[in-house]
Amino acid sequence: MTRIARLWQGWKIPVVSGALILASRTATGVFDAEMVGAIAMSGAAVVAGTPIAVKAFRAAMARVVGIDLLVTIAAIGALIIGERWEAAAVTFLFAVGHALETATLNKTRSALAELIAVAPDTAVVLRDGVQVEVPAAGVAVGETVLVKNGAKVPVDGEVIAGTGALDEASITGESLPVEKVAGDKVFAGTVSHGGFLQVRAVGVGADTTLARIIHRVEDAQDAKAKAARFIDSFSAWYTPVIILLAVVFGVATQDVVLALTLLVIGCPGALVISIPVAVVAGIGRAAKDGILIKGGEYLETSAKVTVVAVDKTGTLTRGRPVLTDVVVLGTAHHEAGASAVAAAVSASGIDAGRSEVLYWAAAAESGSEHPLARPILAAAAAAGINAPALADLTESVPGKGIVAHTGGRRVLVGNAALLDQFAVVDLAGADAASAELTAAGRTAMIVAVDDEVVGVIAVADEIRPDAAEMVRRLHASGIERVIMLTGDAPLVAQAVARATGVDEVRASLLPEDKLAIVEELQRQGHVVAMVGDGVNDAPALALADIGVAMGAAGSAVAVETADIALMSDNLLLLPEAIRLARRTVWTMRQNIAIALVTVVLLLTGVVLGGVTMSLGMLVHEVSVLVVIANAMRLLRRRGGAIAPAGSTGTTPRRATGAAGAATDGDRVAEKMAV
């Protein structure tokens, strides 16, 4: 359907009715044709009033007494007593108001329309070595899809070859293009801004993240908030009361016009629309920013949150350990292999002492399967240290560390107990340095070559750069306490707390402990939002008043089950979600006040005299439009930017994921070079 056809579809009834009113006025005022004028005016009332009467009849059959019934009774009564102008004016204005209301409500649903618009129609797949264009829904899981510059990604998948920059705003709300390389995830509906990608299809058609988001936003915008359900209940008894009041006034005053006017003026149209339009606009604004809110009820509850509980690993931190410290305490002064070490570290961008400590640690960890081996190896590679690809012999010592033999040397990486076991005397103060790093919340490891301690290295889970700003903004938005709930050790948790500014730390927790803390906070009268990754935090997320899932773009479960899903790992989306929820609830209250004040003033004007049926309907429709316009202000973003920390300028942002190790190593190399 073309734009003009859609416009005509929405406006044909008020246009025809308005034309008949104009014809009636012309016939009586210019040609003095009273009969023609009366027929045209009655026709205007019938054209505009018939759809209203049909809706009123259908509602009555369902035992629902609504606004349409009030207008229908008033219009029919006005025609019966010969008040054709009043009948035509009331129905015409009601039809105009309905058309404007539909148009503006469609505007508030613009986020959903934009999401649907970005859904790709076609895909280019590689079949038997030939590029074939097929419908996007026709791509099979496992097929290779080609994404060229300017094209939309038609599937959810994983990059298997090529590089490129994708605009992921439609999925995550990220404002800058994100660089993609082999191993990175891509999402349907994102747009290539350069490069060429080969993508293995993982999710297609209705199984894509974009399709799930569209489905969830549709459901959320239609879901009723608690306030909306109250308004529905209010209208159910309010309308019969207005009809009864009109009958009583009509009998008492013997003034049928007054009774009919009361029916029209008493229409609570602005009141009924006040909540839904605000919910639709609020959820639509959130969706544009990469915040998926499950429905109006959760939007309302989010506005009441007083305490935010956050998981540490994967939320305040990246969930990936990185090398943070290299402390030089000595040098392996043995001739054997010295030239090999010198050659290996000569290309390093950091000083010789640190290079050597990192060289020996990487050489030992090259054969280790321990999770802490990866950040050490990544940092060494990023610093340009050519450590052996594999140690000659690697042995794990449970609870103490590892012993490796490489290049004719024995290398120990572990704690003080490991040194004691191999009779290595700590003359350089490694135990003290290790204790200091541990107190700072890092995992420290002593490095010894043969019988000499050469240094201490430390790793830690990297704190997200926007974590402290998130906490600050939560406090600024009215959150009383931000509490960290973590299963990690107290020293580590305290270090993260100091860096981020959280108000309270609960450490060494099991999932059931987190659940108990949420229950405790709720008993104290707090409305609790729990933020986590949805795995070990699942019980607490389910019990909290609002469960918030981080980075939900890659998780179908999170999109479907979380009360609020933050589609990217941008922590600043959390305070934005709460701020938007409070704006939305405040807008609801404003709309209710506007609607109630309008009805009270109009009813008073009718009783005291001076407010006619047509004038009352005009004011009533204006109040409806004011309520809608007030809600539409939610579609505009306010306050601080919600771009991830460091996302300034126009350079594509590097994706986090399988290829993130080099990025971590770069940061370590920069820190070590200071």
- CATH architecture descriptor text of the domain at 281-318 and 464-581: 3-Layer(aba) Sandwich
The low-pLDDT segments are 333-340, 645-651, 656-674
Give the DSSP E fraction (strand runs of 2 or more residues): 15-25%
Structural class: alpha/beta
Largest sheet: 8 strands, mixed
State the end-to-end distance: 63 Å
The CATH topology annotation of the domain at 281-318 and 464-581 reads as Rossmann fold
> What's the total number of strands?
21
Alpha plus pi helix count: 25
Shape: elongated
Look at the structure and give the mean pLDDT.
79
- What is the CATH first-level class name of the domain at 281-318 and 464-581? Alpha Beta
Percent of residues in helices: 40-55%
- By CATH, the superfamily of the domain at 281-318 and 464-581 comes out as HAD superfamily/HAD-like
The whole-angstrom Rg is 34 Å
List keywords for this structure.
single chain; Calcium-transporting ATPase, cytoplasmic domain N; Rossmann fold; 674 residues; disordered C terminus; eight-stranded mixed beta sheet; ATPase_P-typ_transduc_dom_A_sf; translocase; 21 strands; seven-stranded mixed beta sheet; alpha/beta
What would you say this structure looks like, in words?
- Among the domains are: 281-318 and 464-581, HAD superfamily/HAD-like (Rossmann fold); 319-352 and 361-381 and 389-462, Calcium-transporting ATPase, cytoplasmic domain N, CATH 3.40.1110.
- The chain contains 25 helices and 21 strands.
- A hairpin with a 2-residue loop joins strand 1 (122-127) and strand 2 (130-135).
- It is elongated, with a radius of gyration of 34 Å.
- It starts with a helix and ends with a helix.
- Mean pLDDT is 79; it is low at 333-340, 645-651 and 656-674.
